Every structure is written in structure tokens, then in C-alpha cells.
Amino acid sequence: MYLTQGLHRCAQQSPDRAAVIFGERSETFSELHGRVARLAGAMQKLGMKTGERVAMLALNSDRYIEYLLSVWWGGGVVNPVNIRWSVAEIVYSLDDCDTVILIVDDHFLPMVATIADSARRRPVLIYAGEGSAPAGMLSYEQLISYTAPVDDSFRGGDDLAAIMYTGGTTGQPKGVMQSHLNLWSSTVSRMAEYRHFEGTTVSLHAAPLFHIAAMARAVGHFTAGDTHVVLPSFDPSAVLETIERHKVEELLLVPTMLQAVLEHPDFGARDLSTLKRIYYGASPISAAVLDTALAVLPGIEFFHAYGLHPSITQPQRGLAGSTARPVAPASASR
User: Which residues contact 12 (CB under 8 A, 6 or more apart)?
Assistant: First the structure.
């Protein structure tokens, strides 16, 4: 089994179904399949050999989804950069895992020159923004346009898939190595127990994709073949508008995000009838917030996901309509 398997299946069986939606952009599974294969080929030409690290410093976008799949397709290892880090912390992580390519969006463009000049091994810089590529950087879109698609490397098992860095609160951040089997087995265990990865679910990404919680959910939806709706960052008004507009069925929020959504003035005015599940985690949730959520969102299932930041999270189930806390816990994957 391999992490790109769902993309192959959906490109074959439902090529015209929406795969990723970001703002006014939308791409089908057929389009995503082609862009992933071309971006993988471009990165291989730029030095991404088997097992080489590729980093992305960016807010959430459709391109972040493509980045994850393309690196795995091409045989590389993803190194999602913590968007809250300083330049020094970013450079440390790039040096520590010997990153060969760094993809950057508009939001972090002002940091690029200092990062590149400070890194022990200057990475190839790819601009994944909305304008023309600045001097010294390659255009993400032009690389896809001008590169022929390559075959999937079909890496899997104990092959390294991701390096996720700890927060560095008690010292230097540490790179935690996740194999393809780590990501795959965690995904399959969640699919087997909760049976909510239906292959037609519309899922909203509002939490940052550099974090394992959001990335692991993305992997689950890659595997099932679900539709990804992506917000660049969390905004309660945008979350409510997006749920209504795209008929979102599930999303992941940390408790403070959930509280902000519940307390937003637009909450009662938006049509949230398609919403079926909310995952929450990253910090304890207060009884007051959970009880309020259960009361104002009747019929929705709530799942508590837990785990250390760089490790795989594992959800517990709490059923809406009850004030009981999460039940039937499963042990976190190691």
C-alpha cells in the first residue's frame, strides 16, 4: 500500500469529481493527478532523489495538498515547516534534515533571502505564490506547465515519508521520522473503526497543514478519495461561510477555534445542515464549550483526537446529544 493510491483510484474511477477547492480555484481528481505527476518530475530534476527532503513554508492552500502528494509520488520526504517559527528555527530544521528544496508562498516571501543565505546547504527555492516568481526563485506553476509527468515511485512500508519537528520548548526542535507505514496504518485503523472515510465526504482544512493533526487527516482523505476544501488559515467567519457554500461535512478544530465559531455573530445565520462531524484536539476542551457545541449542533458527532505534535493522532468518539465525555478510547499510534 502507498500514500498516493487513493489519487490513482479516483483519477481512474471518478476523474471529474472535485478533489481540491481553494478560494475560487477548484481541480478535479484528473487534474490533481496530472499536476502531482508533473510537479514530482520537476522536483526530481531539481535534485529530489529518493529519500531527499523537501520543505514547504506556506499557509494552507491547494498547492499544499499537491506538495504532499508530489513529494511522495516522486520518492521524496516531506518536511512541513512550522509557520510560527523564527528564521533561525526554520534554518535549524532545514540544516538538521538536509533539505534540498524549499517551497514558499507569498506570506513568507520576506523571509526567503535570509533563510537561503543562512542555511548550510542553500535549498532550491520554488515560489508558490500568486504573482511572478522573484529573482532567484522558480515558479511553481511554470514548473508544472513545462515538465512532463513522471511515474509514481510507489514508495511505502518502512520508507521514510515525513519529518515532523517538535516545538522546541525545552531545547532545539527534534525531527520525528514518520514512515509510510506509520501514516498508512494510522489512517487505516481510523477508517476501520469509525467508517467515516466514505470517498465522497467534503472535508474542510482550517487547521494548519504543517501540523501532524491536519496532515494526518489529509492522508486519510487522500486514501478514501474525499474532497478537500482548504482555507489559508483559521477565521471563524470564513469557516462558517465555507461550510455553507461548499456543503462541508466535517472539519478539525482546536477547542479555541471551536469556541470562536460558536460565539461568532454569523453562527445562527449560516446553514450548517450538511455538517456531520467535528474533530477537536491539540489542547483540553472545557466542559462548557463542549456542552454548548453539543446543544447548538444537535446530531453532529464529536471526536477527540490526541497525540504529541509530531506523532500520529488517534481519535476518541463522543456522541452528540450527550454530555458524556469521549468514550471507547483507542491507544495512540507510536
Answer: none
